[in-house]
Predict the structure.
Amino acid sequence: MKILGLSRTALIAGFVGAGASAGFLLGPQFQNADARPITIQAPVGAPVSLADLIEQVSPAVVSVNVVSEREASDLSELERFFDRFRNGPQPDENEEEDGPTREARSLGSGFFISSDGLIVTNNHVIEGATQIEVVLEDGRELDAELVGADAETDLAVLRVTEGSNFAHVQFGNSSQLRRGDWVVAVGNPFGLGGTATAGIVSAIAKPGDRRRSSTYIDYLQIDAAINRGNSGGPTFDLYGNVVGVNTAIYSPTGGSVGIGFAITSNQAKTVTDMLTKDGKVTRGWLGVTIQDVTDDIADARGLADADGAIVADIVSDGPAKKSGIRRGDIIVEVNGTKVTDATTTTRVVGSLLAGSNNTFVVLRNGARVNVPVTVGERPENINASFDPSEDERPDNDAETEEGPLGLTLSALDADTREDMDMEADEPGMVIVDLSTDSPLREIGLRPGMVILDVNGQPLTSVETLENEINATKRRGRDNVLMAVHSNGRTLFVTVDISDN
């Protein structure tokens, strides 16, 4: 079970469970002091019991037992504890490991989606597996093989290698869910296979909801108890349809606190269909680093709305470079579909077919520009992003110049460009020093980083910086926009100049 900072989902104490019924239900009767009967009635529409539902779907839910080779140092204390709990003390337990790796065992959940043995689970459950075994509700232990996995959405598809005519479930339509709808989770928490918990849909991620979304996935937040081992298991609606794949919890303790997250069934079905067919998920690729257009960026660019994704960096020889997209362009539309931020842009581009021709609309120098783009196929290893905390301080013998904002700068030379993985003709100036009260220090800039441009103007001298600051103030704006290069990547930062 992934734990995102804290954990996700809660035990429902005193829940009266499933199969929606109509009308009032007579509950237990008590006597008051006057011996008058007091009837406790359940509210209209309350479920009577979830037993029929759970009995119906449980045969399709499996426990997933995984053996993998892992670095001994990677095992958590909890994993070491359960390893000792399962296998007993080992004779050399207090001695150093004989080698860099050891056999590790982990637990998860999954569910059949076909009678011939296809199973859905989480990628993090089976990642690095050398052996996968699934345990059915009737106790059968069956070997399984990996059909395909997708780390971006944390989904995987397995196939059992023996048997047939398996009980299975189907994906429902998660777009019809509302907050407050009852849901049931079935899985293998802490190795306690066949465990069912119930609760409601607490929240549903919407576009731009960074609290409940990742790059490619919007999550259901549920309060049916989810714990370690529930990963990959199903969340059902009251009709027995899978409406989510349990993936993560939010908890300060590592256990359920009532906040759990499940991948929506609509997204899970799309991904698992591709994994079943091709063994992988192919996504369109533009070859850029993009950022949200914040209010400060919109102010610096003179935009009325903070919409779209600004292109901060472009991969050499990538699709964007070949198509004429430039650093500083703000992508606002793809094939007629409006994009509002970096996440929606990434998802729209990821849904495009590699090699397909598309029309992007960008804001450039205050005008809307149509750019025809042939997208590529997204590589599996996207490089790590810009890290503003590292002090690079490249060797640079150029003369330094003191400038505004507490900056001391020097011109770029060929050796510095090569050291910092920059193109030979890339303009910019190196930050040599920052005063202690510089506003750039507050936003994470450090000596050794390179400022490439200011408000879209290539930074070739301190005078350029001074001119852009003065021009920004004359326009009545409080922020300048800088493209900053560090660790082989470029990002935009806004600098508040109102006090300078």
Remarks:
- The longest strand covers residues 101-112.
- Residues 265-278 form the longest helix (14 residues).
